[in-house]
Amino acid sequence: MKNKNAFYKSFACGRRNHERSNFLHNKIFVLIMAATIALGSFAYAAPDTDSSSRDRTQSSLKTDFPKPNAESAIVIDAKSGDAIFAMNSDRKVFPAGTSNIMTAMIVLESTKLTDICTVSEAALANVSYDQPQLGMLPGETFTVEQLLYAIIMNSNNDAANTLALTVCGTLEDFVQKMNDKAVELGMTGTHFANPTGWHDENHYTTAADMAKLAQYAMKNPTFREIVLTQKYVFPASNMRSKEKTILSTNHLVSRYKYPYHYYPNATGIKSGNSTNAGYCLVASAEKGQLSLISVVMNCPNENANEGAYSFTDTKAMFDYVLKNYQTVELAKQGDVIHDSKVKEAKDSTRLALTVDSDLYTTMKSSVDPKNVECDVEITKDAVAPIVQGDIFGTVTYSYNGKVLKTANLVAANEVKRDFILHIINLIFGFIFNPFVIIIAILAVAFYLRLRAIKNRKRKIRQSKLASYRRENETPKTAKDSYNSRNRRNSRNDSYTRRRR
After folding, report:
1. Fewer Cβ in 10 A, N or C end of the chain?
2. CA angle 321, 248, 271 (to 5 degrees)
3. How many CB atoms lie within 10 A of CB 174?
4. Residue 38 clears pLDDT 50, i.e. is over it
5. Can you give the three-state secondary structure of 389-443, one letter per residue?
6. What does the alpha-carbon distance between residue 333 and residue 1 come to, in Å, rounded to a whole number?
């Protein structure tokens, strides 16, 4: 795999690789826990239950931020997900037509743009005259793509119902899919009751949740194209002989109705309003590497120009952030963050580690990204075989001691095992295994002990046998003793004569 070093050139990031043992890790953990318990006995701070810590932190640090005239609001970096500004962002609010963002995503992920939708009586049954609608007729046919433009650009409720029935057959089943998707995206403060956004006490969301939804939706190319559209023309249908033109109600992207609100950097997304929800706007803007998502809910718009706070305040927030902030690319998937030797690797292949997804953070424009530090922690030994995507540790990026982002480090390449090296290591591992060595030593000691015992027993037997033989030997007679003595004397005389 190609080694990408652009990351290091960008940040001059000093790697400090901490390959910690489990023993050291556990020891530090115990010390930290002990210190925490000790401190806890001296001081206690009651938790603040008023709002999210995100709201308090962002609002207090950015006193010069243009505060929007809204019940709740949030601005996030679409790439990093970081909240740059938040105000009551977790407060329950009614989403009105911005609900169609979720409706559109369910449809896009469940159908083809060319699928045909046939308008039914059921789709029109609960659409009253005071609701926004395309004016569809029972039996009229449209493509999925045409009705997506209708719900995104104009919040047409008859179109939303028709799409929902095309996808699921019943409105209830479609709404369940909407709520399931909300759970999947982590929209913990959201519940949908219909596909249109028409007011229902059980149909609510939060500004933070809508930002998550918009961040997800803007990754879909078809959705991005629709939300940037200023004008759309419906061709004649099977029941209409004339074309029908609609204009986007998101005036940040359109010059047609209210050019006063047009914003060159805007890229979408969706407006909505009702008596209970007020004026809502989920918007997006881009400039350079910075991509933003803004949400304002329940704005008290007073007129179509300066008093249209959902648009004017959104533009003011975009201007401020685009001027004062930057998106910093910490690492891209495929960048080599760390590499190491691999035990039993075929052809001495090394292991390259990368992040499991692109990693960004949002910082003030005055900050030099080169001062961002990265800290690599390896938690798993590199032993072949290794599958691409296996997790081996984490990388943490920080600035001035503050953690910015943490991500998993995964194998960027596959490493195959060398079979011969593996067999050799198994043999040596068995031979030099401490347990095997101890068993061998004990076996030798046991053998020597048995041999010593056996030798001792043999000597005892020999000693006893010799003693037995001495005790049981037949005594010699006097005659035998006399003859033996005469023979010995005769030999001695013979020897004496020869000497002479």
Report:
1. C
2. 55
3. 24
4. no
5. CCEEEEEEEEECCEEEEEEEEEECCCECECHHHHHHHHHHHHHCCHHHHHHHHHH
6. 13
